[in-house]
Specification:
Largest sheet: 11 strands, mixed
Structural class: alpha/beta
Oligomer: single chain
Number of helices: 12
Number of strands: 11
Strand content: 15-25%
Distance between the termini: 30 Å
Shape: globular
CATH architecture of the largest domain: Alpha-Beta Complex
Helix content: 40-55%
Length: 313
């Protein structure tokens, strides 16, 4: 068996989990094991629901945590017992396109990759399309990905397909909430693994109606900035020290949560107006954090426009 799918389930509604599981079981590539970790032992309904699936389809393996251990540890637990050479990620409220695995494996084999991701489309709680990333006939390979990772996490975590040897070399995810995936991708790049982005939408990513809180969003962006700074120096931070370093870093860089809120308010305005350009310029010169994020946005745009390799359809 060459393929393993790993998924952690916590508090997702049963109908979301059903849609997610069905999207995996209905893949055009069928020879795989599907390891599902239940990270909420109080969810008896979830255990019963998934157990019934595993009785009908022996590709499904259920692991029940005795207590909540978090996403990183749950995924590491699944990786540890996995038998596949390739490990696909999946989230319990997302939906994979039926041809996702086939196309991703072909992409990796054709380009000798160790690690790949795809584009996504965003859906709301009812499954309605909210936004779809723009597809093209370009692919982005290791050199482009390394440059992009200096600016942002550009590899959507639920779309990953990673060779098991990468997990073994990196010793799995580190418990760095909420940037476990970005941290893993950066360490993969530093370890010289070959990484690629397939510019095709192959997963529907469901938006959380509660969203991430402003405090957690600020933490996510500051942790990302810290990872980027270490990455530029070709190293990564000791995660046992990052909490203390966080406060020191924010003060030193003069980053504030209010600035981040203004940045997202700016990005949420779809049209380009004189007022928006004025606010953009004002924040660029006034706010160190917004200036950094805007520069990152521009860098990513330039890399996408002028980087990549064109592929024939």
């Amino acid at each position: 068996m060459n393929y393993s799918i790993i998924m952690s389930v916590y508090n997702e509604p049963l109908n979301y989990v059903r849609d997610s599981v069905e999207s995996i079981l209905n893949q055009t590539l069928t020879d795989f094991e599907f390891i599902i970790v239940i990270d909420n032992p109080s969810r008896g309904d979830l255990k019963q629901f998934l157990t019934e699936y595993s009785v009908v389809d022996n590709r499904i393996k259920i692991l029940l945590n005795e207590e909540n251990i978090g996403l990183a540890s749950s995924l590491n637990k699944a990786v540890k017992i996995s038998k596949g050479e390739y490990i696909f990620r999946m989230d319990a409220d997302d939906i994979s396109y039926p041809s996702r695995f086939d196309k991703q494996i072909r992409f990796m084999e054709e380009n000798s990759l160790d690690f790949s991701a795809t584009l996504i489309e965003l859906i709301d709680q009812k499954g309605n399309l909210v936004y779809k990333q723009r597809e093209s006939n370009k692919i982005y390979l290791t050199n482009d990905i390394r440059k992009m990772l200096l600016n942002r996490s550009i590899l959507a975590h639920p779309t990953w397909c990673v060779k098991k040897k990468v997990f073994d070399k990196l010793m799995g995810y580190r418990d760095l909430v909420p940037v476990e995936d970005y941290d893993f991708a950066i360490r993969g790049a530093l370890a010289d693994f070959k990484i690629g982005l397939l510019n095709k939408v192959l997963l529907q990513y469901r938006l959380n109606e509660n969203g991430i809180s402003q405090t957690n969003k600020f933490k996510q962006y500051i942790y990302s900035a810290i990872l980027q700074d270490f990455y530029k120096e070709k190293s990564y931070i000791d995660i046992t020290k990052i909490t203390n370093y966080f406060q020191e870093y924010v003060i030193k860089k003069r980053y504030t949560q209010q600035e981040l809120s203004k940045y997202f308010e700016l990005k949420s305005t779809p049209s380009i107006t004189i007022r928006k350009l004025y606010i953009c310029l004002y924040l660029y010169f006034k706010s160190p954090l917004v200036r950094r994020l805007l520069i990152n946005d521009i860098n990513i745009l330039v890399l996408k426009l002028f980087g990549g390799e064109k592929q024939s359809d």
